[in-house]
Write a structure and sequence with these properties.
With 150 residues, the chain is mainly α. It has helices spanning 6-17, 22-32, 37-43, 48-55, 63-73, 79-95, 125-135, 138-148. Helix 3 (37-43) crosses helix 4 and helix 7 (125-135) runs antiparallel to helix 8 (138-148).
Amino acid sequence: MFIFDKTLIMNATLDLLKGLHPGHYLENELKKRKISKKEFAESVHEHLQTIVSITKAKRKFTPALSLKTEDFLHLEEGFILTLQAFYEIKKAKAQVDTTKPDLTKIRPILFWDTDIDKIQWHKEKESVIKRVSERGNEQEKEEIRRFYKL
């Protein structure tokens, strides 16, 4: 006889769904269960437009709606908001500029002989690493290690 650990199952499911908007998950669950969005909206006492916006990833889940959704679909409490958090993290990571390091952590004087905004960070990688390792402070070195994944 197997005993299933709900946390283990939820974590495995989350690993598969990380970065997916929870609205897409909801849409898939409703289709699987043959429940219309209108029927679902009425069951959780929410406007149909809200549910449609969420399933199109144009709107976030609120904590209140997530609890009602989890209750309706018999999901682990916190599952929907956890999906929402992973989705927000994925969006934030995509907005991070990967073409240059965080210049708020690097003193322009370190590159006194050039315009810091015109440095081709990937093309001049070796020179940048050498200069920062020789003349940079600990924060600058850490930022260069982070940027170049050293």
